[in-house]
Amino acid sequence: MNVLNEWTALACKELGVDPARVDRDVILELTKEVAHGVARPAAPLTAYLLGLAEGSGTAPEDAVARLTTLARNWGEATAQALTGD
Question: What is the pLDDT of residues 17-56, one digit of tens each?
């Protein structure tokens, strides 16, 4: 078992999370997009926010898609926020 698999299994056990609910590859892809498109420290924050969104009832697929789109369009999104467009 590699370290990432072992960590996922043990962290899920510690938190009482069914590991079958964790799509690790999707989360890693999302955090990669955020780290490269926004800023490295935004990646773990985004993973945390994704967990909060899911905990409040947002479908994980929807949240991941929205966050990925935001990260990919980060430059445009910040320009619009700054100009009010």
Answer: 999 999 999 999 999 999 999 999 999 999 999 999 999 9
- What number of helices (H) and strands (E) belong to the chain? 5, 0
Angle at 23 between CA 77 and CA 21, to 5 degrees: 120
Residue 34 lies in a domain: yes
Rounded to two decimals, what is the model's pTM?
Answer: 0.83
Distance CA 69, CA 80 (A): 15
Chain centre distance of CA 83: 27
Is residue 8 assigned to a domain?
A: no
75 residue type, one letter: G
Give the count of domains, the chain: 1
Nearest to 19 by CA among 28, 29, 27, 10: 10
